[in-house]
Amino acid sequence: MNLLVILLSAILVNNFVLVRFLGICPFMGVSKQVETALGMGLATTFVMVVASAATWLIQWFILEPFGLPFLQNVAFILVIASMVQLVEMFLHKTSPSLYRSMGIFLPLITTNCAILGLAIMAVQGGYTFIESVVFGLGGGLGFTLALVLLAGIREELRFSDVPKPLQGAGIAFIVAGLLSLAFSGFAGLV
Amino acid sequence: MKGILNDLRRGLWSENPTFRIMIGLCPTLAVTTSAINGMSMGLATTFVLVCSSALISLLKNLIPDKVRIPSFIIIIATFVTIVDLFMNALLPDLHRVLGLFIPLIVVNCIVLGRAEAYASKMPVINSIFDGLGMGLGFTWALTLLGSIREILGAGSIFGKQLLPEGTPTLGIMGLPPGAFITLGILMALMNMIAARQNKVS
What we know:
The complex is a heterodimer.
Chain A: H1 2-13, H2 24-29, H3 34-63, H4 72-94, H5 96-102, H6 105-108, H7 113-124, H8 129-157, H9 169-183
Chain B: H1 2-12, H2 17-21, H3 25-30, H4 35-59, H5 68-90, H6 92-98, H7 109-119, H8 124-154, E1 156-157, E2 160-161, H9 176-200
Antiparallel strand pairs in B: 1-2
Helix pairs in contact in B: 1-8, 4-5, 4-7, 4-8, 5-6, 5-7, 7-8
């Protein structure tokens, strides 16, 4: 039950992108086509699940017992960077076609603040191991949902008459604002 | 001397990180609920930018090319930890408001971007002024966004009451949708100004 609350809360109520403002750069950068948005979202979800498990183990088995919580930032970002590298190598070996289609976006996942943010929030929230992993999954799915929704709307926007200064980022931000307004309807659900 | 001034000026307008290059957007949206929050976040980022640019520029010949990105990230994370601990000790209220976004300066693309694109190639003095310019450019953008949201959302600026008591305010400006919409409109305004400048010159 508790796990379901964590999952729903991370996907809808406290959506990482639209409510917590995490991962805005890929949200704006990779949301021009639904297909790439979906690929990016799923790759990020995968890294989030793996990273939330790894950072939980590091926090409670290394940093806390040895009294090193002040090294949290440095340790977490290094773990995340190596996770992304691992995912990249794994995809390169097992599925070259998927690797090629996501190529450039993969290394950029390291600087997606949603992942470091997720790891820090899971520690601050005092989650157990399973809860952290579920939180990571929910965060990733919420990120994917927001990304795909925005990409769908932006695909349609290409056929509409947008005033020149608003074209590109301007209108995308306003659309994101309206999406965020819609998501605030989920407030109080859990 | 002229080169240094150019380094400083670039970040303020022509390569402004927020409005022209559009990087570092997460803190831009998240902490600008008021002018003072936006400004504090900007200044904290400026400190990290200047220090990490200086150190990376000093060490550029010592860092092997293959491991430069992890090395840069460790240098940046160290300065972010310093800011985090200092603010927690000296400005606990502000630290609570900015919360998660202080440690997240580590993954702010502005810092790593300047390290990779500028500080790892240029002399120390130029890198410091480049970092300062980018940081201040980021700071004014955040302060502007924070001021607009604070005036429209709460009728005050820097915590001082601006509009007369009882003026209706837009509560939505303090919430996430207000952040997205305000930034979208500001971007359009900056595009119009830039387009006009190009026409004149």
